[in-house]
Amino acid sequence: MKKKKGTKPEKPLSKSVAALAKSPDDYVDESYANRFNSFVHDVRETVISKGFHESPEYETVPHFCMMVITELAEIVEYDRTDSFKEPCDKKFGKVPIGISKIEEEVADAMMRLMSFAEKHGLNLGRAIQLKHLFNTMRPRKHGKKY
Q: Is the pLDDT of residue 53 over 90?
């Protein structure tokens, strides 16, 4: 990077942050966001079609959060019992679905979050891309201990 006379050299990172702040949507792959959001919509529709969320009390923010926490708690339990990588017991008829217990629980937690996002009209495909990009530009641990 060439230094202009009488100025401090500009850090590449600060230029990227400035460009991102000026026009964040220039950094979003709309095709990816749309495909991801379509999948999010499908996940929510499946949840509803299977009878979940029929009552308003099951649609509250605390309920959604607690349901995600229960999935995460199952991950901890699998870790405690050393069954983290054991095959999931779910099957398509007689054929195992081919994922581990941990993959099942992570997927469950993610699908609950997707359902929440769809219910609240969140553009998760866009948000994930922009938050990931922002995170790539942050300093290591960004001032935190862990």
A: no
Q: What is the dihedral of CA 134, 102, 33, 59, to 10 degrees?
A: -100
**Short-list 134, 123, 109, CA closest to 27:** 134
E strand residue ranges, 14-111: 91-92, 95-96
* Residue 21 within a domain: no
Structural domain of 72: 29-137
117 pLDDT higher than 90: yes
For residue 67, pLDDT over 70 is answered with: yes
Instruction: Write the burial class of residue 92 (CB in 10 Å: 0-12 exposed, 13-18 middle, 19+ buried).
Output: exposed
- Please report whether residue 100 resides in a domain: yes
Strands in the chain per DSSP E: 91-92, 95-96
Burial class, 143, CB count within 10 angstroms (exposed 0-12 / middle 13-18 / buried 19+): exposed
Dihedral pair phi/psi, residue 84, rounded to 5°: -50, -45
